[in-house]
Predict the 3D structure of the following.
Amino acid sequence: MMLQKILVAEDEPDMLELVASNVSRAGYDVIKAQDGPSALAAMGQLPSLVVLDLMLPGMSGLEICRTLKANVRTAAVPIIMLTAKAEEVDRIVGLELGADDYITKPFSPRELVLRIKSILRRTVGTVAELNCLAVGDIAMDIDRLEVWVREQLVRCTATEFRLLRVLLERRGVVQSRATLLNDVWGYENAIDTRTVDTHIRRLREKLGPAGDCIKTVRSFGYRIAK
């Protein structure tokens, strides 16, 4: 069973490790970020919940909250804000922007874990219902037939979309050219494997640096790196 991912965005190293270790011991897969841009980039992994400190360098927690709630891929992801007592106004603004809960520093890590569990029980299935696949900076919304790299929509053809979907669904597993021709194009016989190579090249170009996660296995095929 795949563990639910929790993104913990906190710039104080000791606090980050304290929260991360307690959340991990509670049975979750923890993604850590120490600044705003890193937290936003980590959303490509589509966590089940975000623990978000309001005072992050590079991009504030409020800016991140606003960005996440404005994006169809991440709007349903619950957010728990970490705030200081003096940040009451920011806390109110955060709740108005769509954050689900807040906890004031200093706090009990056990209380935070209990709040995480409570929110995930209420929202179970909400993120999954978006029917998304994600690896690194790439996210795919299967229902909307959309591919995103970070916050940018990538225009893919129907064939490119099917090809990327197969690779994402089978991430880490090498797919032969013949298998891809069969599963993406519907060809039972490997008529011309250069078709696969051409589409992979175009897909990498469209994905930009994120396309580096599509690895070539020489003389065999391709795989998406985990």
